[in-house]
Amino acid sequence: MIEVRWHGRGGQGAVTSVELLAVSAIAAGKYAQGFPSFGPERRGAPVAAFTRIDDKKINVRSGIYKPDVVLVLDSSLIGLVNVTEGLKPDGKLIVNTHKTPEEIRKALNYTGTLAIVDGTGIARKEMGVPIANTTMIGALLKVIGVMELDAMKDAIEHRFGRIAQKNLNAMKRAYDEIKIYN
Amino acid sequence: MGKRIGMEVAIAVAEAVGLCDIDMAAVYPITPQSHIAEHLSDLVANGEIDAEFVTVESEHSAMSAVIGASGAGARAFTATSSQGLMLMHELLPIASAMRLPICMAIANRAVSGPLNILNDHTDIMPQRDCGWIALFVENGQEAIDLSIQAFKIAEHKDVMLPVCVNIDGFQLTHMVEPFEMPSKEEVDKFLPPFVPHATLHPAKPVTMGAFAMSDYFTEIMKAKDEALKSSKKVILEVWDEWAKLFGRSYKPVETYKADDADVLMLTMGSMGETAQMAIDELRAKGVKAGLVKLRMWRPFPFEEIKAAIKNAKKLIVTDRAITFGGPGGPVFAEIKSAMCTETQRPLIYNYIYGLGGRDVPVGDFVGMFEKVLADTENKAVGTYEFWGVRE
Question: Chain A closest CA to B223's CA: distance in Å?
Fold first, then answer.
């Protein structure tokens, strides 16, 4: 089983992303859970959302405390939220940022696997908006590899209709452009 | 059998209810039930289901509206949570006394105060003695299945009682997870049209919810008790039929590795599957642990519970509510009363946990077993403890 914790801000679409990812993983024959951090949420405030994906039925329903992967949708959270908390020693940290890996490592005092892509820049170019939640699904799938990028197509089309293709393009670019530093 | 799909459970419950040819729904939105209300009103507004969605100004009105509609012969649905259920309370015994087959989804949530929106069972427990059939589910599939079954159970001529399906708020309602959604054709085959026993109609006047003084009141209470007790037979028949049609079987009490267990845990609701993982961990360490899951809260399945737990040495009853100043958790009290006349029974312990959304990871369940097994002098038998409380 792979467990992912997403960090974003209310309104950036972390919850939408975990939903789309879970729906798509299930449609691809996997078992998955997607859920928000339970409770009240406010636009702009730090939020977390969670994904579990496995090849067999998932029984656990408690929170995720030791994620395999942490995905930071908004790098301005670094320093505000302890984004690497509980990340497994062999875990992977994915950050949406235009900064260098050295800058991120230094800010977080982090030496583990780091994957970086300028998701917001891609979203701006491909969709005209700085909303990187679907873009970063592409980045995540490159890092965790559990399913093909194409598996996202139906859920994205269902959710976004006429702007679906732009989301898919952005997702593909993040998939292609993300760089992984071990 | 359907294909596995992924969807948020609250939305799926509304979809499932939408397959049941309801005539009306009156639902007042409240977290964490709101997605049920919103999606059901979408289904009606979009013309996907032919039903009346009555917008009401409170849960008291929602329950009043479904009582009126059900009395008029409509298949009626509502849903609520926490304070909303507390506000409905006054009307719940009236719905059951009038023998109205109303179905209600409850997204279980802590009751105030202090204000809390997260999951526990403190909302349903105060409704225990209102004469409703009360069932619990532990995952999205069960939430969907029981939401459909509820109508068939409620409307059976030998039952004619309201049914509530308890679906843990957030842990279940806000989870996107896989399940099979029955098709409309399958539900039509399973659920016949509602034929009311009597209806309110000007052309044929009847009295419902009449006045009864001491000359009749006791007899009516006894009749209600008999009706609720005998509903179990119908529920079992409905579950048998469901298993034949959909391949998923339901029992009043489910067990997991319980047959040869020395020490058992009892859960109700969404904690069951997480507790199951603790059982696997303990079994791997050589501890003969097992799990008993209570699905049917009312009518209470005395025989099935006795059969499931009598051979164990120790039993840990878990509760997500407390009866203040009383015997501990309400489930604990029930299990103790069920077993007090049995010569062969386990030593019973009670942990109250997961209140107001407090997370209970696998390790906590393991910890409960370890603590009970370490009580070799049986000092804590029959007592209750707030698990993980800071003092």
Answer: 41
Contact B361 A63 (CB under 8 A): yes
Contact yes or no for A152/A119 (Cβ under 8 A): no
N-term to C-term CA, chain A? 22
pLDDT of residue B286: 98
How many angstroms away from the CA of A104 is the closest CA of chain B?
31
**Closest C-alpha among B359, B354, B361, B363 to residue B386:** B354
Burial B48-87 (b: 16+ CB within 10 A, else e): ebebebbebeebbbbbbbbbbbbbebbbbbbbbbbbbbbb
Give residue B85's pLDDT.
Answer: 98
Q: Which residues of B touch A18 (CB under 8 A)?
A: 176
Q: Please tell me the distance in Å from B375's CA to the nearest CA on chain A.
A: 27
Mean pLDDT, residues B129-158: 98
Q: For residue B2, name the pLDDT band (cuts at 50, 70, 90).
A: low
pTM of the model: 0.97
Would you say the CATH fold of B253-386 matches that of B4-246?
yes
> Tell me: domain B253-386, CATH 3.40.50.920, correct?
yes
Fold of B4-246: Rossmann fold (3.40.50)
Q: pLDDT tens, B364-390?
A: 999 999 999 999 999 999 999 999 999
pLDDT tens sequence across B65-78: 999 999 999 999 99
d(CA B287, CA B174): 34
Distance from CA of A179 to the nearest CA of B (A): 30
Residue A160, judged by CB atoms within 10 A of its CB (0-12, 13-18, 19+), counts as middle
Under CATH, which number does the domain A2-181 receive? Answer: 3.40.920.10
Q: Look up the ipTM and state it.
A: 0.96
Query: Which residue of B lies nearest to A65 if distances are taken between CA atoms?
Result: B361
Q: Which of A35-39, B242-246, B355-359 has the lowest mean pLDDT?
A: A35-39
Q: Is the dihedral of CA A92, A93, A97, A98 positive or negative?
A: negative
| Chain A residue with minimum CA distance to B171 | A61
According to the 3-state scheme, what is the secondary structure of A113-174? EEEEECHHHHHHHHHCCCCCHHHHHHHHHHHHCCCCHHHHHHHHHHHHHHHHHHHHHHHHHH
Contact A63 B175 (CB under 8 A): no
Yes or no, beta carbons of A19 and B357 under 8 Å apart: no
Burial B110-133 (b: 16+ CB within 10 A, else e): bbeeeebbbbbbbbbbbbbebbbb
Nearest CB among B175, B277, B361 relative to A35 is that of B175
Q: Where are the domains of chain B?
A: 4-246, 253-386
pLDDT at A125 > cutoff 70: yes
Which residue of B4, B118, B175 is the best one to mutate when testing the A interface, meaning the one whose CB has the most A CBs within 10 A?
Answer: B175
Tens-place pLDDT, residues B77-119? 999 999 999 999 999 999 999 999 999 999 999 999 999 999 9
Q: Do B271 and A27 touch (CB under 8 A)?
A: no
What's B189's DSSP letter?
A: H
